[in-house]
């Protein structure tokens, strides 16, 4: 057998045993699912792939969104060399750059150096990439699931085009699964997938193409082993060891489970709260949606009874955005536990609702003259700012002075609960209202005179 025939046979054998996700890896940009914002005519990515550009690229996106696929497409017509930041060190980086230099000198072959999980590289490892990138010896392509502005050194970031990949949605994953079922590189049409099994597969995938294809391949193996021509829900559940949770993200279950989650936290039942959180996560609910609900609840149901509640919820939302699932479930669980155990108060939402009701009822009135802007020519002639008392000029930084318009003077909107930190706030609030409002009538009379 000639060398060429042997190489072709070896490549075909390798493809035959390759995982389904590898066999179905797109060969062209038109086969890529999702990422429409990067694939349009004239887009930077399309120009780089079709024009064979040498610009270095950073691909930032969640797992299974297509970073490795795009990296391979960027290498079209060039040697693709892959390093994993988990196992490679400075020595490996320098060796890859030196080898690229040799190839370029010997036969003019250019190299695309792909570093997966580049955020795991230390500063010294990233520094080792710079000479090869700056000199054009390699076209660097880095993939990261973490914000590169925090995890990639500035010199490397400034020399690379940053492309942000979005999570794949259910339609993208469905298209990929249908293609895998029919394509000769995949299952070749020998199996079908029941609708309820497809729905469960979409939930399990959670926007991760690789996870979807891995689950499909496992289910196909289970179906083949029992001589079935269709993959049903039971087969899929058994093969991936995850039961289907009845949960329609667009239907009643979505709203019912979300409602139960919020009400359990409000009711201080931490265990029920965690149960509903787990149901949402296992059913494939968008973790960002869950995080947004926690941020809202922190103000609506905890408020200033625990001033740290908002900080915890916002931190969880930011963490989920940064790390994604599955690790992000820990951040959501921590925030859920904190909020469920926190003292509760709805004083914040009652306060803003009461103030809004008055505004909508027309209780607005002109801003008192002493509070109006006095920093422009002519303001003095209009007596804007006249009589304003600068609080810092008075003991304790508080002075008797009317702040609201006459229409709502003396109205109390915020009523702190007698729980948590609001118990202390209530005492201070009463003292402040007494100190500030003591001269409201006197102030109005001065303004009228």
Could you explain the architecture of this structure?
This protein has helices at residues 3-17, 20-23, 36-39, 44-51, 67-74, 90-107, 123-135, 148-151, 154-158, 170-182, 195-205, 209-225, 233-240, 252-266, 270-282, 287-302, 308-323, 328-341, 347-360, 422-437, 440-448; strands at residues 56-60, 79-84, 111-116, 138-144, 160-164, 192-193, 230-231. With 449 residues, it is an alpha/beta fold. It has a five-stranded parallel β-sheet, sandwiched between helices. Strands 6-7 form a two-stranded parallel sheet. The protein is extended, with a radius of gyration of 31 Å. 32% of the residues are buried. Residues 6-11, 243-251 and 441-445 have low confidence and may be disordered.
| Total of DSSP H or I helical runs spanning 4+ residues | 21
**CATH domain fold name of the largest domain:** Rossmann fold
Structural class: alpha/beta
- Across the major sheet, the strand order is 2-3-4-1-5
Query: Uncertain spans, ≥5 residues at pLDDT below 50?
Result: 6-11, 243-251, 441-445
Sketch the major β-sheet: 5 strands, parallel
- Overall pLDDT, averaged? 83
The secondary-structure element order is HHHHEHEHEHEHHEHEHHEHHHHHHHHH
Strand % is 5-15%
Proportion of residues in helical segments: 40-55%
Distance between the termini: 109 Å
The radius of gyration over CA amounts to: 31 Å
Please render the helix and strand layout as text.
Blueprint: H1 3-17, H2 20-23, H3 36-39, H4 44-51, E1 56-60, H5 67-74, E2 79-84, H6 90-107, E3 111-116, H7 123-135, E4 138-144, H8 148-151, H9 154-158, E5 160-164, H10 170-182, E6 192-193, H11 195-205, H12 209-225, E7 230-231, H13 233-240, H14 252-266, H15 270-282, H16 287-302, H17 308-323, H18 328-341, H19 347-360, H20 422-437, H21 440-448
Parallel strand pairs: 1-4, 1-5, 2-3, 3-4, 6-7
